[in-house]
Amino acid sequence: MRFLCLHGLGTNPQILEAQIGLLRAQLPGTHEFVYLAGEVECDAAHGVSNIYPGPYLCYYDLPTVDQVADAHDLVLSFIEDEGPFDGVIGFSQGAALASSVMLRRAKDLSLEPLFQIAIFICASLPFDLDATPVVVQKSPNGRLKFLDAPVMDGGREISQSSAGAQSIIQEFHSLGYSGLLEDGMHVLRRFHPKMRPGINFNMGVPTVNIVGKKDGYLQQGLSLAELGGSRGTVTLEHGAGHEVPRDSLSTRKMTRVVQDAVEKVRFQC
Q: Are 116 and 205 in contact (CB under 8 A)?
């Protein structure tokens, strides 16, 4: 199988290649892995600069309409030029971007899925380009509010107990986005299995969701699994954090679930 590989925020293709190196080594040598670099330079992810050289890249450094739309275009253009790909592997932001592109495409029932299988590692939830953005209101002391519409249109503050608000606010504060936000900025909502009752959003293909027990994005990774395909979703939890574990037991488990999913796809084809 040919896999398109999308890296995390503050890393690059070479770092992702190293992160999944043990997994790749255990999989059959018949697979091909093709890496797509983000086009936005940013700070290195936590702990990365001590181990890997830059440049440190991402697909978007804020989830604005323009930045996420550019990221979608980057992926789709790469698939058109370098594809087709049988599957996609995404780590962190790479998983969010891949699933965002897949879910948006799945809204058009006349289109075939871009991939036969998706492997998401330590994913955050994907942003929805078609949803109405939320608007940032930033007070002089730096406190953030998120409004469901521009203030002049009578927008109200989004309840932080809602699924969408929790995932938006967690993203900004855990990654330090809050310092980059400006008053009046429009940021995208995320896809979430609880946000649109009665509407079935899923990717339509089997997904493997590898999540970390100690990862701050654990719940988002589990929610993404609910947006997987009706043809089969597998979730594997490892004991580490926001990383690809490198111990032998975790590597064997990841290899087994990925290869089992690949073989099921091949059998169904």
A: yes
What is the Cα–Cα distance from 20 to 245, expressed in whole angstroms?
9
Across the range 167-181, mean pLDDT stands at 54
Tokens of 46: 């936590």
Q: Is 152 exposed, middle or buried (0-12, 13-18, 19+ CB in 10 A)?
A: exposed
Please give the torsion angle defined by the CA atoms of residues 70, 72, 77 and 82, in that order, rounded to the nearest 10 degrees. 130
**Quick one: tokens of 146?**
């998120």
Q: What is the pTM of this model?
A: 0.89
How far, in Å, CA of 50 to CA of 215, rounded?
A: 20
Angle of CA points 14, 15, 16, to nearest 5°? 90
User: What Cα–Cα distance (Å) separates residue 226 from each residue in 125, 128, 165, 166, 208?
Assistant: 11, 16, 18, 17, 11
Res. 117 pLDDT band, cuts 50 70 90 = very high
Q: Cβ distance 4 to 99 under 8 Å?
A: no
Dist. CA 79–CA 64, nearest whole Å = 23
